[in-house]
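Suppose a colleague, Dr. K., hands you the sequence of a protein chain of 923 amino acids and asks what its three-dimensional shape might be. Before reaching for any lab equipment, you can write down a predicted structure in token form. Begin with the sequence itself:
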Amino acid sequence: MFESFLGVIAVVALFVFVSKQQTRLNLLERELAALRGLVLSGAAPAAKPVAKAAEAVISDSISEPVAPEALPTEAAAETPAAMPATEMAAAEATPGKTEELPIAAAVAAEAEVAGPWGGKPASGEAAPAAPPARQKADIETALGTRWAVWVGGLALAFGAVFLIRYSIESGLFGPGARLSMAALLGLALVGGGEFIRRTGYRVPIEGGANAYIPAVLTATGAFALFGTIYAAHAIYGFIGAGPAFVLLGIIGVATIAAALAHGQALAGLGLVGAMVTPALISSTAPNIWALFGYLAIVLVATAAIARIRRWTLLIGAAFVGTGLWTLLYMADAPLANFSVILFISVVTLAVLAFLWLGRISEEAADTLDWPSIVPAFFIAVTALVLFLHPAYAVIGGPLRGAVLLLGMLAVALYRPAALAMLFAAGIATVLVYLRNIFGGTVELDLPIGALTVEGLPIEIAGATLTRIGWVLGLVFAGAGFWNARRLVAVGPWRSAAWAGWAVTVPLVVLFSLWLAYGNPDRDLLRALLAAVLTLAFIAAGEWIARAEEPSFAGGHAVSFALGGAGAALLLALHMGFGSGWTTVLLGASAALPALATRLRRYRVLGWLSVAAAIAVLARIAFDPTIVGADVLGRTPVFNWLLPGYGIPALAFAFAAWQLRRTTDGRPRLVMQAVAALFSLLAVAMLVRHAMNGGIINSEAPTLAEQAIYTLISLGGAGILVALDMRSPSPVLRQGSLAIGVLSVLFVVAQHFAVLNPLFTDEGTGRIPFFNLLFLAYLLPAIAAGGLALYARGKRPKWYSAMLALVAALLLFAYATLSLRRLFQGEHIGLWAGLGQVETYSYSALWLAMGVGLLVAGVRLGSQVLRIASAALICVAVAKVFLFDMSELEGVLRALSFIGLGAVLIGIGLFYQRLLTRASRDEG
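The predicted structure, expressed as tokens, is then:
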């Protein structure tokens, strides 16, 4: 063992000696080549400073780099004053260019002996730096530099392990001797790494910094020391838990400190060792304060090192380790010491605020600090556990959790870069109070099985979460709006984040306390609080807007404040009023933001009107009766449906009109659409209520009710066309087209198929003319025809043609069904069959209607009517030849064909006369 140890030392020493001499020889060769080039160029004045520089290199006693002014003018003009190590290596690898290397570059390179990442000259002055020339690494360079060093360090570690194992198996040394030699080996490796670094070790090759030999030796030595202390405690029992804990901690912290000279990888190794140390040391009576005091020391040391080098991965890993130990302690000890939890959490927040973020100025803090996300997550989870875990909640956990949330908010206020603290604290608060709505234990049936979530009993939560909620809501609102105003001109997105949480947390707290401990039907006290929040949020938005640049621009922060005011008003209406008044007042409130655009032209105001309309739609979808079916009553028209649908429709129309005069844009179009929709809904619901005896939630409507809906939709389409002609709007234009198409689809589906009295045998009424057929077919035909005529030239041709065709079909259905009613009476279902005279009458009727449509099409110049006439006559011809020929007998069969022939001949004569007149007019 001892001989092997001496061999390792000899190898390391030999390597250092050879490396040092090789470096000096390379520098000397380059200096002589540069000197030769200067002499041959005739630059005699430069001989003295060149000789002095060469002598300084040979004697290795450089005190400061040679200034570029000391060189000849020609040499100074050819190359920069200093050259990185990678450029020196490139010059060395190219013999043909050695004469071009200036003396000052070699002298400056020799003076920088602080490690592979460069350093400062001995005089403390920073040498001029040039961007390093990247050199493509080949397989030989990778094998000889990086892989050799990595594998060598690993081999040293395994060699030490195998040597100790061999000594154990052979019984050469006792446990004490083996541990002593292992410790000496670790110290020797650490000392060797430090010796190589201090004696001027440099990495003059591309990629060599990734295989920095001093760092590899130091890491191997630290590994050996960790293993030695652990074996002395856990395997041989030479030292107790306390000394082993202290020694392992010292090694870990020392390794982290050594990373200042050796790089982040070594710091990571030391951090892992330091964080794993408490798990390696077992004790029958663990001291929790010692454990977390030790973790605090490791965290502070790591943060100090990471702050100097700005190592984000290192500080993030330190926060992860500390957070995991905290959560493990809370999980393993249901009744954990609150003081310990608060201590380590406060230390984490202090390290983040004063150490890690201590060097970030207010201007440089405009970007998010990503390592801050790690402590934000772990502290937020700690607070959640204290709030929600029943074992902690009953002994004051929520109060401690609130302290942690307020601490996170304070760090976010003090350090703008730690914005993650604000989001984590806000999310934790929202989750706590949303969970509070359910209370007690919640059982969920999931596809993977049952899930039980234990919660705090209501009688306990009501006494604590209410007061904590008010405090958290006030602090979030006050700090949020204050910081939003402070940052609105310099950091708009940060300002918006603060304003967003300033409104979210108070609203969620109020909503949670209302549903959990208040009266869900009517709670006047909390309604008053919601009204106060509404006014406060409006005032905060105005306060923030005054600080904007330019003032009153209505940015995102102001939008969040006003959006919170709208949500608070929504809560106030639901808390303070019944269902009927809530719907009416909520619909009327849509006009308020539109009116506010007269004072402030904020885009968000229009969208607040849209949000109010969406809320009303949601309420109506939940309860179309507005107040409930048992309260609605049976009085036609004058019931809750009239104000429940009518007042929101009027408010939406007013909002659309007001927005058109101020901010315009998409909110105005949306409000126009919902105003038209609510107008149609108001009439439709009143009709349904009146025709169903006060019941509007029955099954499918009757044909009479559907006819009313069809007339309403056709009338609404006509109104939208008229409004669009007066005040052009894409919503009105597209809305009129959409309602017209829907009306046609309803006619085809309901009037002709589903609710057709031929199929349903529904009674058509006893009055000969004013009956169901008049309401369901004739009036819709007149409405569709009138809309087609009115829309000509105002809407696409297909739209008018579609409506005209539907009107003709409705007239055809009305005439046909009326003829059947004349033969069959009130009920005209197909089950009654067809008589001889009735069958013949249909042929005569259809031929007469075809002729009538033809005349109307010619008079009106409508090609659609002429095509409909041709189609109807073709149907009549098909009926005569295919149906009448087989079904009719005697005179009726003959009259059917005679009538058909006469009509067709008449149509032929009519068209011939028409064409003759047209050709005469052209001539």
